[in-house]
Amino acid sequence: MRTGHDLELVHVTKRYGDAVAVNDVSHLFRGGSYVCLLGPSGCGKSSTLRMIAGHEGVSAGSIVLHGAEVTHLPPARRGTAMMFQSYALFPHLSVRDNVAFSLRMKGVDKPARHRRAGELLELVDMARHADRLPSQLSGGQQQRVALARALVTDPQVLLLDEPLSALDPFLRVRMRAELKRLQRELGIGFIHVTHGQDEALALADEIVLMNDARIEQAGPAREIFNAPRTEFVARFMGGHNVIALPQGRFALRADDVRLAPEGAEAVVRAVEYQGGHVALTARMAGEQELLALIPEAAFFADPKHPGDAVRLAWDEGRLHRLHA
Ligand SMILES: Nc1ncnc2c1ncn2[C@@H]1O[C@H](COP(=O)(O)OP(=O)(O)OP(=O)(O)O)[C@@H](O)[C@H]1O
């Protein structure tokens, strides 16, 4: 296992004409960690990733990898590698030659590059398909090959742009575990762009949540979920209510709201069975709606229906003050 190298963005900005896609972003990506760059469509995630990869120039600022400025280096000389959403495999090359491609470009002799490609195909469990063409592989298999191909240059940081979005939900969860395993085994940094908060929570040591061309909040996954700084973070991460009280605005986790004999009066608006729990939406005085996630057994011991009057309670200590 290798010690990871830190990657730092220093006041990085990207403009396309008048539009600002990334606005003065600074961040230190810790070496060897799994970071998810998360945010809604158009917030600047892919532009950030492409600048790190060198596929896109910066408009201002610098990018530093392990103490060396790489801002203006071509992609192949940065120590990063990118895995694309579409995998971008060469259709006329075998799996082995796809993986070995960039070594061929570097002038590595055939036995050496085939040996290295073989090792990486082993790593992603695709060695037995080395002679196939990409068209003879499933989506999940193509993705493993794309991963092996990106890793063949021994990058210090692997960049992944929505790597799971083309897979069906079942395969997505399986590949998610694979990515995490690979990252742990290799000990290099992964920066993974996604718009799925569940994907980021499942994978990331650190989540960097972007909104409107800036970083809204960054931190360990549990911190982002449990201590959202702003209303945007609370709503984007989901599972929270945002409530207005005389003292300010607060986030309150839906699983911290319970039905109780004493509490705020409310009228049930909707009830949804979700397996392990029931999602109950109720309207309180002042038109505020509150979502409560109630454990299945507790709910069905005394089921409620739309229109029923209920009382909702929570512990004051679970209210989390929002700063914007
Ligand atoms: N080549 C381009 N020319 C002009 N504008 C662009 C270009 N690429 C991106 N943009 C704009 O920059 C902003 C950020 O785009 P970017 O692709 O980085 O966002 P994103 O968060 O990755 O979104 P998505 O999840 O939809 O891919 C968007 O408003 C987008 O329209």
Automatic annotation (TrEMBL):
**GO molecular function, one example?**
ATP binding
List each copy of the ABC transporter domain by range.
7-237
- Keyword list, A-Z: ATP-binding, Nucleotide-binding, Transport
Q: Answer whether the UniProt record assigns the keyword Nucleotide-binding to this protein.
A: yes
PROSITE patterns assigned: ABC_TRANSPORTER_1, ABC_TRANSPORTER_2
InterPro entries from the UniProt entry: AAA+_ATPase, ABC_SmlMolc_Importer, ABC_transporter-like_ATP-bd, ABC_transporter-like_CS, Mo/tungstate-bd_C_term_dom, P-loop_NTPase, Transp-assoc_OB_typ2
Q: Does the keyword ATP-binding apply?
A: yes
Q: Name one Pfam family in it.
A: ABC_tran
Among SUPFAM superfamilies, the record links this protein to: MOP-like (SSF50331), P-loop containing nucleoside triphosphate hydrolases (SSF52540)
In Swiss-Prot or TrEMBL terms, this protein is called ABC transporter ATP-binding protein
The species this protein was found in: Rubellimicrobium aerolatum
Q: What taxonomic lineage is listed for the species of origin?
A: Bacteria, Pseudomonadati, Pseudomonadota, Alphaproteobacteria, Rhodobacterales
